[in-house]
Amino acid sequence: MQHIGLIGQNISASRSPSLHNMLGKLKSFPVSYELQELDSPEVSVFQERLSSIIDKGFIGTNVTFPFKQVAVDSADEVSDSVQKVGSTNTLLFKNGKIRAFNTDFTGFIRGYRKRLGDLSAGKVLMIGSGGVARAVAFGLFEVGASELFISDLNTAGAQALAQSLNAIGYKATVVAKDSVEAIAKQVDGLVNCTPVGHYKTQGNPLAASAFGGQKWAFDAVYTPIDTEFLKAANHAGLKIVSGFDLFFYQGLDAFEIFTGVEVQDVTPVLKQFREKYDVVSTLI
């Protein structure tokens, strides 16, 4: 039995343990995915827990809010995805070293291509600029984004993300709130990377009148899958990439990194997961 962790705050409801344990059974590589919930955002507390699970023989850990950026400093080696995004959600412990990866980045790409194939992302409007938004933003340019418009109530955060993208040759612009609907009508894709639409923060971050004329939409929220944002996109005839796609494929990428075991046929575990959690989307 190999032990894997998830370090973060407010993670008691995470479904990652079920996903990784199911993948382990499917591939005859038993794992025990164990939550490492911390009650403090202090870097020292994160570092202490990281050292503790390494000493206990864990093979790796996922990292979530609020430690995705500070975790990079604990790594001996970082992947190309971490260098681009500037944060990590997956740490592998191997040969006495800590290697950092970002499977939010790779998982978004994998989920997008699974749903939309070779469709180029084109011009995209993204609402939100936080942790997952950063990974998705860089991922968008890997699937053919030509320009990204970013809107966030946190203007400084949106500007920082745009600057990071522009610095490596991508084209990103911060959009004022009162211009969002007009921009939405000019783009190919719509992306929600805010918590709006979650069970606890219901609603739609974009006016219903803004949907229509685009080609596709993605919502990072996956509880529920059928968010108001995706319902509006579906009603307007857009192709859909769901937050569950991101959750599933980032977890799949992390499992393969932790274990070295490739999962080619995801159908069995996807079926088991959907049945366990009654994950049934009316849109996909």
How would you characterize the overall build of this protein?
With 284 residues, this protein is an alpha/beta fold. It is built from ten helices and twelve strands. It has helices spanning 16-26, 43-55, 80-85, 103-116, 131-142, 155-167, 180-184, 228-235, 243-259, 267-277, and strands spanning 2-8, 31-37, 60-63, 77-78, 90-94, 97-101, 122-127, 145-151, 172-174, 189-192, 216-219, 239-241. A six-stranded mixed beta sheet has the order 2-1-3-5-6-4, with helices on both faces. It has a six-stranded parallel beta sheet with strand order 9-8-7-10-11-12, sandwiched between helices. Helix 5 links the parallel strand 7 (122-127) and strand 8 (145-151). The chain is globular and about 55 Å long. The two termini are 35 Å apart.
Describe the SSE topology.
Layout: E1 2-8, H1 16-26, E2 31-37, H2 43-55, E3 60-63, E4 77-78, H3 80-85, E5 90-94, E6 97-101, H4 103-116, E7 122-127, H5 131-142, E8 145-151, H6 155-167, E9 172-174, H7 180-184, E10 189-192, E11 216-219, H8 228-235, E12 239-241, H9 243-259, H10 267-277
Parallel strand pairs: 1-2, 1-3, 4-6, 7-8, 7-10, 8-9, 10-11, 11-12
Antiparallel strand pairs: 3-5, 5-6
Briefly say what this structure is.
The protein has helices spanning 16-26, 43-55, 80-85, 103-116, 131-142, 155-167, 180-184, 228-235, 243-259, 267-277, and strands at 2-8, 31-37, 60-63, 77-78, 90-94, 97-101, 122-127, 145-151, 172-174, 189-192, 216-219, 239-241. It has 284 residues and is an alpha/beta fold.
